[in-house]
Structures are given as structure tokens and as C-alpha cells.
């Protein structure tokens, strides 16, 4: 399994962070401090969104790194070249969905194989990745 499911964004858990605007003076920022809910910023449909942690380097070529928190939107069907959370043959993973010419799942790392989806294969698309949150430190 290359993804750890954290849960739905509407389960009552709220992560509130202070909001600072670039270019704002420090004194103004402290006096006029606003707070934002991370779920409100990242999820269009909280009741149809999941938070997961990427646990592999399979998508590092497009900037999704091991340990990143991903917001997955389940409200719309996936389409060609979407980054998706899938259950493929019992494994949860993040991949790029390619529908044409043949349905398959693509990693963004050369050490991972292309996964061709057989007609009778077990594939469940759980949603599309809408946001990636990661640390900027080494």
C-alpha cells in the first residue's frame, strides 16, 4: 500500500491556521490576524473529500513526495490524465490515469511499472487529487 487513508474532511476535525498575506507589514499582520480552516481552503466538497498521506516515491516526478498530505475529491468522475487515488487489485495508490489508447495507471518515477488495467481487473477510482501539501524543508 503506497497511501495511508487519514479520513474524510467533514468528520468534525478542523485544522485552523493563522493567515498572513505576503507584503503585509508585521505589525498589521499581528493586529489583524485571521484564521482559516485548511479543509475550507482545499476541499470544494468536504463531505466528498478525503485526506491521505503518500507513502511512496512513485509520483515524485510531478512533485508529490513521500509523506505529502493529499486532498482527494470524490465529487467528480476521473478523466484522462487526472492524478487519482485508486484501489487497484487491493492496493491503494496514487497514479496518473490514462484512458486512451488503453486504460492504465502511470507512476511519475522510472522505477515503477506501468499498470495496464485488464477488462476484468479490480480497479476502483476513489477520487482525483486536488491538492498536495508538503514541507519545504530538507
Unreliable sequence segments: none
Question: In the CATH hierarchy, what is the architecture of the domain at 3-8 and 48-133 at level 2?
Answer: Ribbon
Which H/E pattern describes the elements? Answer: EEHEHEEEEEEE
Main sheet properties:
8 strands, antiparallel
Structural class: mainly beta
Beta fraction: 35-45%
Overall geometric form: globular
> How would you name the CATH homologous superfamily of the domain at 3-8 and 48-133?
Umud Fragment, subunit A
- Round the mean pLDDT to the nearest integer and report it: 82
Q: What is the CATH topology descriptor of the domain at 3-8 and 48-133?
A: Umud Fragment, subunit A
Counted beta strands: 10
CATH C-level name of the domain at 3-8 and 48-133 = Mainly Beta
Instruction: State the separation between the terminal residues, measured CA to CA.
Output: 25 Å
Distinct helical segment count? 2
For this entry, what is the oligomeric state of its chains?
A: single chain
Q: Helicity level, as a percent range?
A: under 10%
State Rg.
17 Å
Strand order of the largest sheet: 1-4-5-10-6-7-8-9
